[in-house]
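Design request, tokens follow.
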């Protein structure tokens, strides 16, 4: 029995964009991933867990836990290397001194008949601009052109315009005041920067609204015609699109669904509606 969906996120929208069938399986039927059967898949899962843990370490740092204490819990090779890359990056550690700093903040705003929700790793305000930081533990540094069109980049900036007034003394944040930065824990000196402008915001919000309308009225969820997407899709055994996994590195972008269902709605900053 499909679940009544009330909210959308960058992950669910990305899935809908990439393959409506995957959106249906993951967000309407909420099917668990098929069992993991191969060693590379186990490796990938371990890497993913370490990535989640790294986010916690950085959050602890920004809420004021001493770096030496946080470092002690970076207890795998990956975590140690990522932590070292982070703590030695003065551009990042320097953010700690800013007054306007929010970690793990969730914003929401109405989008058609849904709520659009996003959880931000860090929003930093230096008095002039709002910087959205997102920590990525990818093993490959994606091309910036690829990231520019990802729904995360579009949703996070647009939603901060729509729902970020409470961070700005009650005044809406202008698109030009926003910049999104992906920082890659294995490529610490090569972050990807995405400033924002009013025309981009308009284009993004119009597109997001169209997605919401389409999802609301959809009666079927076709499989993607691009079978390359199936190579690293965790649902491929449901679709007769092969059993063997594709390249585990490419899978990182495909399996990045955040657990939207765990978000505590009491803590969401939003505009009233
Ligand atoms: S296996 Fe292919 S068709 Fe099936 S959900 Fe995944 S991407 Fe879509």
């Amino acid at each position: 029995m499909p679940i009544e969906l009330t909210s959308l996120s960058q992950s669910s929208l990305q899935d809908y964009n990439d393959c409506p069938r995957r959106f249906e399986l993951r967000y309407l039927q909420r099917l668990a991933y098929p069992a993991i059967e191969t060693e590379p898949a186990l490796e990938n899962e371990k890497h993913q867990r370490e990535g989640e843990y790294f986010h916690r370490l950085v959050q602890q740092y920004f809420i004021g836990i001493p770096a030496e204490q946080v470092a002690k819990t970076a207890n795998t090779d990956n975590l140690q290397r990522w932590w070292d890359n982070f703590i030695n990056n003065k551009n990042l550690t320097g953010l700690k001194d800013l007054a306007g700093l929010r970690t793990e903040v969730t914003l929401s705003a109405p989008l058609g008949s849904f709520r659009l929700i996003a959880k931000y790793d860090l929003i930093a305000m230096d008095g002039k601009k709002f910087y959205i930081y997102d920590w990525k533990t990818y093993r490959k540094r994606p091309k910036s052109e690829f990231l520019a069109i990802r729904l995360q980049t579009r949703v996070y900036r647009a939603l901060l315009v729509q729902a970020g007034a409470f961070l700005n003394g009650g005044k809406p944040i202008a698109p030009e005041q926003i910049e999104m930065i992906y920082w890659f824990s294995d490529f610490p000196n090569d972050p990807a920067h995405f400033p924002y402008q009013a025309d981009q915001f308009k284009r993004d919000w119009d597109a997001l609204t169209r997605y919401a309308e389409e999802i609301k009225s959809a009666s079927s969820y076709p499989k993607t015609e691009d079978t390359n997407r199936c190579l690293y899709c965790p649902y491929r055994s449901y679709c007769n699109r092969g059993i063997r996994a594709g390249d585990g590195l490419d899978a990182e972008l495909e399996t990045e669904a955040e657990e939207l269902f765990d978000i505590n709605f009491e803590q969401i900053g939003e505009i009233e509606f």
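Comment from the thread starter after seeing the answer: thanks! Strands lie at 7-8, 100-111, 114-125, 130-136, 178-184, 187-195, 269-270.
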